[in-house]
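Hello K.,

You asked for the raw outputs rather than the summary table, so here they are, unedited. I folded two proteins back to back in the same session to keep the settings identical. This is the first:
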Amino acid sequence: MQPLVRSRTRLPKAIQATCKAGGFSRRPLHSKQRRRLFLLCVFAFCLVPLLSGMESVLLVVLPGGLPLGNLLASLVLLSANGVALNQGRGRSLFFRCSLIALAGTMVWLPLGFVLSGNPALNFSGVGGAAALFWRYTGGFACITAALLLWHVIIAWLRQIP
């Protein structure tokens, strides 16, 4: 007589091959993988309202006068650079570049406060402070995108036998 519940179920060979080819496994996630998954979730959940232009969400003023959109933009930059930093290994060039980018994005929101004079990052006047801030923002957005692309290429190359 066979037991009603099997302790370990075997998948058909076709499904096993598909899971192995797709990178799926039953092994539990390591702490580095959990951290990466958490940062990617933060990145995705913060990026969706920013890209879709949900004004009702982005313009919500948090205590202290900071709009939620500014906080979400900061979290997008930080989490994306955190994913890249999590991928890097010790003293590699990728790790060092990710560390510099993370430090630069940590300064992004406070720099905006200082240059604009308010937490809403509303620049008044024609001064060069607004131009400096937006160049800094654009530069670090491009650096973050390049690091994420570099991260994807590294991950893809590590899977090639």
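The second followed immediately with the same parameters:
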Amino acid sequence: MQRLKNISERVLNSLNPHKKSAGFMKTRIPKIKNKCEFCRKTGTHFSVDIEHDQIVPDEFHNFKKVLSLQIGYCNFPDEIICCPYCGTYYYKKRRIDNEINNCSDEIEFEEITEDRVKELIIFQKNNK
């Protein structure tokens, strides 16, 4: 019975990581980075429609490329980029669809965690 109680407590704690545990378990509260002004404005997802004459903000050109991934048969590799000011990571991907009467050319930037970046780096090294 005690074992079942401990398991259920772990499950409940994993659903609410900010609640302190009543028992011996400790929950880890994630560190929150201070983002620079640009990354705060950008948010967790940002996209640019090239076919509608939108342009990528100049700030993204200053980001450091951490990793380049060739996914499928795309002309442009996906990239992991890092803000030089606050260290926020973004997954950058460009997708072009040349479908007749419905073409698109879009670049997306999606914020990802440092832990996910580490996983992707390990994955890339293991698959070379």
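The first helix runs from residue 2 to 15.

Happy to rerun anything if the numbers look odd on your end.

Regards,
P.
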